[in-house]
Design goal:
By secondary structure, the protein is of the alpha/beta class. It has helices spanning 64-82, 115-123, 137-146, 178-188, 201-213, 236-248, 256-270, 274-291, 307-311, 321-324, 328-362, 373-387, and strands at 23-25, 28-30, 40-41, 50-58, 89-97, 106-112, 150-151, 157-164, 191-197, 218-221. The strands form three sheets. Strands 6-5-4-8-9-10 form a six-stranded mixed β-sheet, sandwiched between helices. Helix 1 packs parallel to helix 8 and helix 6 packs antiparallel against helix 11.
Length: 392
Protein backbone atom coordinates (compact mmCIF):
# COMPACT_ATOMS: atom_id res chain seq x y z
CA UNK A 1 0.00 0.00 0.00
CA UNK A 2 1.36 3.40 -0.87
CA UNK A 3 -0.11 6.20 1.18
CA UNK A 4 -1.34 6.90 4.65
CA UNK A 5 -4.78 8.55 4.68
CA UNK A 6 -4.55 12.11 5.90
CA UNK A 7 -6.74 13.18 8.78
CA UNK A 8 -7.18 16.65 7.26
CA UNK A 9 -9.79 17.20 4.59
CA UNK A 10 -8.72 20.36 2.86
CA UNK A 11 -11.15 22.25 0.68
CA UNK A 12 -8.60 23.19 -1.92
CA UNK A 13 -8.84 25.06 -5.16
CA UNK A 14 -11.95 26.97 -4.06
CA UNK A 15 -10.84 30.47 -3.07
CA UNK A 16 -9.85 33.25 -5.47
CA UNK A 17 -12.65 31.99 -7.75
CA UNK A 18 -14.45 35.19 -8.51
CA UNK A 19 -14.00 35.46 -12.25
CA UNK A 20 -14.72 31.78 -12.75
CA UNK A 21 -16.82 30.33 -9.95
CA UNK A 22 -16.61 26.65 -9.16
CA UNK A 23 -19.80 24.73 -8.45
CA UNK A 24 -20.43 21.33 -6.92
CA UNK A 25 -21.71 18.55 -9.12
CA UNK A 26 -21.66 15.01 -7.79
CA UNK A 27 -18.41 15.64 -6.00
CA UNK A 28 -16.90 17.69 -8.80
CA UNK A 29 -16.32 21.42 -8.90
CA UNK A 30 -16.69 22.78 -12.40
CA UNK A 31 -17.22 26.03 -14.24
CA UNK A 32 -20.74 26.35 -15.66
CA UNK A 33 -21.07 26.20 -19.47
CA UNK A 34 -20.85 29.60 -21.11
CA UNK A 35 -21.46 28.83 -24.76
CA UNK A 36 -21.49 25.94 -27.19
CA UNK A 37 -22.48 22.40 -26.21
CA UNK A 38 -21.40 20.49 -23.15
CA UNK A 39 -17.67 19.97 -23.15
CA UNK A 40 -16.82 22.37 -25.97
CA UNK A 41 -16.63 26.06 -26.72
CA UNK A 42 -17.50 27.73 -29.98
CA UNK A 43 -14.60 29.73 -31.35
CA UNK A 44 -15.18 33.45 -31.68
CA UNK A 45 -12.11 35.10 -33.12
CA UNK A 46 -9.20 35.03 -35.51
CA UNK A 47 -7.34 32.38 -37.46
CA UNK A 48 -4.63 31.66 -34.90
CA UNK A 49 -4.26 27.99 -33.98
CA UNK A 50 -5.55 26.85 -30.61
CA UNK A 51 -3.81 24.78 -27.97
CA UNK A 52 -6.00 23.42 -25.17
CA UNK A 53 -4.25 21.59 -22.32
CA UNK A 54 -5.89 19.97 -19.30
CA UNK A 55 -3.81 18.49 -16.49
CA UNK A 56 -5.61 15.61 -14.75
CA UNK A 57 -3.53 15.11 -11.61
CA UNK A 58 -3.77 12.59 -8.79
CA UNK A 59 -3.74 14.74 -5.65
CA UNK A 60 -3.47 12.02 -3.03
CA UNK A 61 -0.73 12.19 -0.45
CA UNK A 62 2.01 10.44 -2.40
CA UNK A 63 1.91 13.10 -5.11
CA UNK A 64 3.29 15.96 -3.01
CA UNK A 65 6.57 16.26 -4.91
CA UNK A 66 4.93 16.32 -8.32
CA UNK A 67 2.34 18.92 -7.31
CA UNK A 68 4.95 21.19 -5.76
CA UNK A 69 7.05 20.88 -8.90
CA UNK A 70 4.11 21.66 -11.17
CA UNK A 71 3.45 24.85 -9.20
CA UNK A 72 6.98 26.03 -9.94
CA UNK A 73 6.71 25.21 -13.64
CA UNK A 74 3.20 26.10 -14.79
CA UNK A 75 4.15 29.55 -16.12
CA UNK A 76 7.13 28.12 -17.99
CA UNK A 77 4.92 25.40 -19.49
CA UNK A 78 2.37 28.01 -20.56
CA UNK A 79 5.06 30.21 -22.09
CA UNK A 80 6.58 27.30 -23.97
CA UNK A 81 3.15 26.29 -25.26
CA UNK A 82 2.65 29.80 -26.59
CA UNK A 83 6.00 29.81 -28.42
CA UNK A 84 4.72 27.61 -31.24
CA UNK A 85 4.82 28.84 -34.82
CA UNK A 86 2.36 30.12 -35.82
CA UNK A 87 1.78 31.51 -32.29
CA UNK A 88 -1.28 29.76 -30.83
CA UNK A 89 -3.97 30.85 -28.41
CA UNK A 90 -3.28 28.83 -25.26
CA UNK A 91 -5.81 27.75 -22.66
CA UNK A 92 -5.13 25.53 -19.66
CA UNK A 93 -7.47 23.63 -17.35
CA UNK A 94 -7.03 21.49 -14.23
CA UNK A 95 -8.67 18.36 -12.88
CA UNK A 96 -7.65 17.25 -9.39
CA UNK A 97 -8.77 13.71 -8.67
CA UNK A 98 -8.67 11.38 -5.68
CA UNK A 99 -11.04 8.57 -4.70
CA UNK A 100 -14.28 7.81 -2.93
CA UNK A 101 -13.98 8.49 0.77
CA UNK A 102 -11.47 11.32 0.31
CA UNK A 103 -12.28 15.01 0.76
CA UNK A 104 -13.37 15.06 -2.88
CA UNK A 105 -13.42 12.76 -5.89
CA UNK A 106 -12.71 15.42 -8.52
CA UNK A 107 -12.32 19.19 -8.71
CA UNK A 108 -12.24 20.90 -12.06
CA UNK A 109 -11.08 24.26 -13.37
CA UNK A 110 -12.42 24.77 -16.88
CA UNK A 111 -10.11 25.65 -19.75
CA UNK A 112 -9.21 29.32 -19.60
CA UNK A 113 -6.81 31.78 -21.14
CA UNK A 114 -6.55 33.50 -17.76
CA UNK A 115 -3.31 31.88 -16.67
CA UNK A 116 -3.24 33.97 -13.50
CA UNK A 117 -6.34 32.07 -12.44
CA UNK A 118 -4.74 28.73 -13.31
CA UNK A 119 -1.64 29.53 -11.27
CA UNK A 120 -3.62 30.79 -8.30
CA UNK A 121 -5.73 27.63 -8.19
CA UNK A 122 -2.78 25.33 -8.75
CA UNK A 123 -0.89 26.88 -5.84
CA UNK A 124 -3.74 25.86 -3.54
CA UNK A 125 -3.61 22.18 -4.45
CA UNK A 126 -2.53 19.99 -1.56
CA UNK A 127 -1.67 16.30 -1.73
CA UNK A 128 -3.81 14.47 0.86
CA UNK A 129 -5.88 11.31 1.22
CA UNK A 130 -5.46 8.05 -0.64
CA UNK A 131 -4.04 4.99 1.06
CA UNK A 132 -5.79 2.15 -0.73
CA UNK A 133 -3.87 1.70 -3.98
CA UNK A 134 -6.20 2.42 -6.94
CA UNK A 135 -7.80 5.86 -7.32
CA UNK A 136 -10.83 7.07 -9.25
CA UNK A 137 -8.77 7.74 -12.38
CA UNK A 138 -11.78 7.13 -14.63
CA UNK A 139 -13.76 9.95 -13.00
CA UNK A 140 -10.75 12.24 -13.33
CA UNK A 141 -10.39 11.42 -17.02
CA UNK A 142 -14.13 11.72 -17.63
CA UNK A 143 -14.19 15.21 -16.17
CA UNK A 144 -11.11 16.20 -18.18
CA UNK A 145 -12.77 14.99 -21.38
CA UNK A 146 -16.45 15.82 -20.81
CA UNK A 147 -16.71 18.53 -18.16
CA UNK A 148 -14.60 21.23 -19.74
CA UNK A 149 -15.23 23.40 -22.78
CA UNK A 150 -12.83 22.14 -25.44
CA UNK A 151 -12.28 24.08 -28.65
CA UNK A 152 -14.66 23.13 -31.45
CA UNK A 153 -11.93 23.88 -34.01
CA UNK A 154 -10.91 20.56 -35.64
CA UNK A 155 -7.40 21.94 -36.10
CA UNK A 156 -6.94 22.68 -32.38
CA UNK A 157 -4.40 20.79 -30.31
CA UNK A 158 -6.34 19.11 -27.51
CA UNK A 159 -4.22 17.46 -24.85
CA UNK A 160 -4.94 15.82 -21.51
CA UNK A 161 -1.96 15.07 -19.31
CA UNK A 162 -2.91 12.25 -16.94
CA UNK A 163 -0.43 12.32 -14.07
CA UNK A 164 -0.51 9.79 -11.26
CA UNK A 165 1.06 6.82 -9.53
CA UNK A 166 -1.89 4.44 -9.03
CA UNK A 167 -4.13 2.51 -11.45
CA UNK A 168 -7.86 3.18 -11.85
CA UNK A 169 -10.66 1.61 -9.86
CA UNK A 170 -12.63 -0.38 -12.45
CA UNK A 171 -15.06 -1.88 -9.96
CA UNK A 172 -17.28 1.16 -9.33
CA UNK A 173 -20.88 0.98 -10.50
CA UNK A 174 -21.29 4.68 -11.33
CA UNK A 175 -21.96 4.49 -15.07
CA UNK A 176 -18.38 5.36 -16.00
CA UNK A 177 -16.06 2.97 -17.80
CA UNK A 178 -12.55 3.44 -19.07
CA UNK A 179 -13.61 2.32 -22.55
CA UNK A 180 -16.42 4.85 -22.60
CA UNK A 181 -14.23 7.74 -21.55
CA UNK A 182 -11.51 6.85 -24.04
CA UNK A 183 -14.09 6.57 -26.82
CA UNK A 184 -15.33 10.04 -25.92
CA UNK A 185 -11.76 11.38 -26.05
CA UNK A 186 -11.13 9.79 -29.43
CA UNK A 187 -14.34 11.20 -30.89
CA UNK A 188 -13.49 14.68 -29.64
CA UNK A 189 -9.95 14.52 -31.03
CA UNK A 190 -8.40 14.70 -27.56
CA UNK A 191 -5.02 13.08 -27.01
CA UNK A 192 -4.27 11.69 -23.57
CA UNK A 193 -0.60 11.58 -22.63
CA UNK A 194 -0.14 9.49 -19.50
CA UNK A 195 2.73 10.23 -17.14
CA UNK A 196 3.38 7.60 -14.48
CA UNK A 197 5.02 8.71 -11.26
CA UNK A 198 7.04 6.03 -9.52
CA UNK A 199 7.47 2.38 -10.46
CA UNK A 200 4.10 0.64 -10.08
CA UNK A 201 3.87 -1.87 -12.96
CA UNK A 202 0.07 -2.08 -13.08
CA UNK A 203 -0.13 1.70 -13.38
CA UNK A 204 2.32 1.63 -16.28
CA UNK A 205 0.25 -1.05 -18.02
CA UNK A 206 -2.96 0.95 -17.66
CA UNK A 207 -1.26 4.22 -18.62
CA UNK A 208 0.13 2.57 -21.77
CA UNK A 209 -3.31 1.35 -22.77
CA UNK A 210 -4.91 4.75 -22.11
CA UNK A 211 -2.32 6.66 -24.14
CA UNK A 212 -2.34 4.25 -27.07
CA UNK A 213 -6.12 4.52 -27.48
CA UNK A 214 -5.89 8.27 -28.15
CA UNK A 215 -2.55 8.52 -29.99
CA UNK A 216 -0.98 9.99 -26.87
CA UNK A 217 2.40 9.42 -25.26
CA UNK A 218 3.22 7.34 -22.21
CA UNK A 219 6.19 8.01 -19.98
CA UNK A 220 7.51 7.41 -16.49
CA UNK A 221 9.11 9.86 -14.09
CA UNK A 222 10.40 9.75 -10.54
CA UNK A 223 7.86 9.54 -7.74
CA UNK A 224 8.58 13.15 -6.76
CA UNK A 225 8.00 14.34 -10.33
CA UNK A 226 11.65 14.75 -11.28
CA UNK A 227 10.80 18.31 -12.29
CA UNK A 228 13.57 20.05 -14.18
CA UNK A 229 15.19 22.29 -11.60
CA UNK A 230 14.33 25.98 -11.72
CA UNK A 231 17.38 27.86 -13.00
CA UNK A 232 17.75 31.35 -11.59
CA UNK A 233 19.15 34.10 -13.79
CA UNK A 234 20.53 37.63 -13.26
CA UNK A 235 17.39 38.94 -14.98
CA UNK A 236 14.78 37.37 -12.69
CA UNK A 237 14.61 40.21 -10.18
CA UNK A 238 14.24 42.83 -12.93
CA UNK A 239 11.51 40.81 -14.64
CA UNK A 240 9.77 40.28 -11.31
CA UNK A 241 9.78 44.05 -10.80
CA UNK A 242 8.40 44.57 -14.30
CA UNK A 243 5.84 41.85 -13.65
CA UNK A 244 4.57 43.89 -10.70
CA UNK A 245 4.48 47.01 -12.90
CA UNK A 246 2.47 45.07 -15.48
CA UNK A 247 -0.06 44.03 -12.84
CA UNK A 248 -0.53 47.69 -11.88
CA UNK A 249 -1.79 48.44 -15.40
CA UNK A 250 -4.77 46.10 -15.02
CA UNK A 251 -8.17 47.74 -14.59
CA UNK A 252 -10.62 45.06 -13.55
CA UNK A 253 -14.32 45.50 -14.08
CA UNK A 254 -17.32 43.51 -12.89
CA UNK A 255 -19.22 43.06 -9.68
CA UNK A 256 -17.57 43.92 -6.38
CA UNK A 257 -17.01 40.20 -5.73
CA UNK A 258 -15.47 39.70 -9.18
CA UNK A 259 -13.12 42.65 -8.81
CA UNK A 260 -12.09 41.49 -5.34
CA UNK A 261 -11.44 37.97 -6.60
CA UNK A 262 -9.40 39.31 -9.52
CA UNK A 263 -7.24 41.26 -7.08
CA UNK A 264 -6.73 38.10 -5.00
CA UNK A 265 -5.66 36.16 -8.09
CA UNK A 266 -3.13 38.83 -9.05
CA UNK A 267 -1.84 38.92 -5.46
CA UNK A 268 -1.27 35.14 -5.54
CA UNK A 269 0.83 35.55 -8.67
CA UNK A 270 2.79 38.45 -7.22
CA UNK A 271 3.71 36.21 -4.28
CA UNK A 272 5.34 33.65 -6.60
CA UNK A 273 9.13 33.13 -6.62
CA UNK A 274 11.07 35.54 -8.81
CA UNK A 275 11.69 32.93 -11.53
CA UNK A 276 7.97 32.20 -11.81
CA UNK A 277 7.20 35.92 -11.97
CA UNK A 278 9.79 36.26 -14.72
CA UNK A 279 8.05 33.51 -16.67
CA UNK A 280 4.68 35.22 -16.15
CA UNK A 281 6.04 38.49 -17.48
CA UNK A 282 7.56 36.73 -20.49
CA UNK A 283 4.30 34.89 -21.17
CA UNK A 284 2.25 38.07 -21.27
CA UNK A 285 4.79 39.96 -23.37
CA UNK A 286 4.77 37.15 -25.93
CA UNK A 287 0.98 37.01 -25.86
CA UNK A 288 0.71 40.75 -26.45
CA UNK A 289 3.15 40.53 -29.37
CA UNK A 290 1.30 37.64 -31.00
CA UNK A 291 -2.15 39.17 -30.50
CA UNK A 292 -1.17 42.69 -31.54
CA UNK A 293 -2.68 44.13 -28.38
CA UNK A 294 -2.42 44.33 -24.63
CA UNK A 295 -2.39 41.47 -22.18
CA UNK A 296 -3.44 39.88 -19.79
CA UNK A 297 -6.70 38.48 -21.15
CA UNK A 298 -9.36 38.70 -18.45
CA UNK A 299 -12.01 41.17 -17.25
CA UNK A 300 -9.50 43.96 -17.76
CA UNK A 301 -10.42 47.20 -19.54
CA UNK A 302 -6.86 47.74 -20.78
CA UNK A 303 -6.35 45.95 -24.07
CA UNK A 304 -6.24 46.61 -27.78
CA UNK A 305 -9.39 48.77 -27.87
CA UNK A 306 -9.34 52.52 -27.19
CA UNK A 307 -10.69 53.49 -23.80
CA UNK A 308 -14.10 54.65 -25.04
CA UNK A 309 -14.65 51.39 -26.93
CA UNK A 310 -13.43 49.27 -24.02
CA UNK A 311 -15.87 50.99 -21.69
CA UNK A 312 -18.87 50.62 -23.98
CA UNK A 313 -21.52 48.50 -22.30
CA UNK A 314 -19.78 48.45 -18.91
CA UNK A 315 -22.11 49.79 -16.24
CA UNK A 316 -20.89 52.36 -13.74
CA UNK A 317 -21.51 49.95 -10.86
CA UNK A 318 -19.04 47.50 -12.45
CA UNK A 319 -16.22 50.03 -12.56
CA UNK A 320 -13.51 50.42 -9.90
CA UNK A 321 -14.33 52.97 -7.21
CA UNK A 322 -11.87 55.58 -8.49
CA UNK A 323 -13.40 55.52 -11.99
CA UNK A 324 -16.97 56.04 -10.78
CA UNK A 325 -16.09 59.62 -9.81
CA UNK A 326 -14.93 60.37 -13.38
CA UNK A 327 -17.01 61.51 -16.34
CA UNK A 328 -17.01 59.53 -19.61
CA UNK A 329 -14.06 61.40 -21.15
CA UNK A 330 -11.98 61.07 -18.00
CA UNK A 331 -12.66 57.34 -17.86
CA UNK A 332 -11.58 56.85 -21.45
CA UNK A 333 -8.39 58.88 -20.85
CA UNK A 334 -7.67 56.87 -17.69
CA UNK A 335 -7.89 53.57 -19.58
CA UNK A 336 -5.83 54.94 -22.47
CA UNK A 337 -3.20 56.11 -19.99
CA UNK A 338 -2.98 52.64 -18.45
CA UNK A 339 -2.61 51.19 -21.94
CA UNK A 340 0.28 53.52 -22.70
CA UNK A 341 1.95 52.49 -19.42
CA UNK A 342 1.44 48.84 -20.33
CA UNK A 343 3.02 49.21 -23.73
CA UNK A 344 6.16 50.65 -22.14
CA UNK A 345 6.31 47.88 -19.53
CA UNK A 346 5.75 45.14 -22.12
CA UNK A 347 8.57 46.50 -24.28
CA UNK A 348 10.92 46.44 -21.29
CA UNK A 349 9.83 42.92 -20.44
CA UNK A 350 10.47 41.76 -24.00
CA UNK A 351 14.00 43.18 -23.89
CA UNK A 352 14.83 41.65 -20.50
CA UNK A 353 13.23 38.36 -21.46
CA UNK A 354 15.40 38.07 -24.58
CA UNK A 355 18.48 38.33 -22.38
CA UNK A 356 17.03 35.84 -19.87
CA UNK A 357 16.30 33.31 -22.63
CA UNK A 358 19.87 33.59 -23.92
CA UNK A 359 21.18 33.02 -20.40
CA UNK A 360 18.96 29.94 -19.93
CA UNK A 361 20.04 28.42 -23.25
CA UNK A 362 23.70 28.81 -22.30
CA UNK A 363 23.27 27.50 -18.74
CA UNK A 364 24.25 23.88 -17.98
CA UNK A 365 21.22 21.62 -17.88
CA UNK A 366 20.52 19.96 -14.51
CA UNK A 367 21.00 16.22 -14.36
CA UNK A 368 17.88 14.20 -15.01
CA UNK A 369 16.02 17.14 -16.52
CA UNK A 370 15.05 15.24 -19.67
CA UNK A 371 13.20 12.67 -17.56
CA UNK A 372 11.13 15.08 -15.48
CA UNK A 373 7.47 16.07 -15.60
CA UNK A 374 7.99 19.34 -17.44
CA UNK A 375 10.29 17.75 -20.02
CA UNK A 376 7.70 15.04 -20.76
CA UNK A 377 5.03 17.70 -21.19
CA UNK A 378 7.20 19.58 -23.71
CA UNK A 379 8.00 16.41 -25.66
CA UNK A 380 4.38 15.38 -26.13
CA UNK A 381 3.26 18.96 -26.81
CA UNK A 382 5.81 19.18 -29.60
CA UNK A 383 4.51 15.99 -31.22
CA UNK A 384 0.87 16.98 -30.85
CA UNK A 385 1.60 20.45 -32.22
CA UNK A 386 3.41 19.12 -35.26
CA UNK A 387 0.40 16.93 -36.09
CA UNK A 388 -1.71 20.10 -36.24
CA UNK A 389 0.78 22.27 -38.10
CA UNK A 390 2.29 24.07 -35.09
CA UNK A 391 6.09 23.93 -34.86
CA UNK A 392 7.81 23.94 -31.45
Amino acid sequence: MKRSRSVAAAAVVLSVAGLMLWRSKDGAFVTPPSQGGQGQITQQSGDRPRVDIVFAIDTTSSMTGLIDGAKSKIWEIARRAQEGQPAPEVRIGLVAYRDRGDAYVTRVLDLTGDLDKVYADLTQLRAEGGGDGPEHVIKGLNDAVNEVHWSSDPKAVKLVYLVGDAPPHEDYDDGLTLDGVLNDAHQRGIRISAIRCGTDSLTLSKWTSIASRTDGEVSSIEQNGGVHAVITTPYDSELARLNAELAKTEVHWGSSAERSAAADVVAANMAAPAAAQAERAGFYAARAASEGGGAPAKQDLVGAKPGAAALAGVSESDLPEEMRRMNADERAKFVDGKRAEREVVLARIASANTKRDAHLKAAPKPRGGADGFDAKVYDSLKKAGEAKGIAY
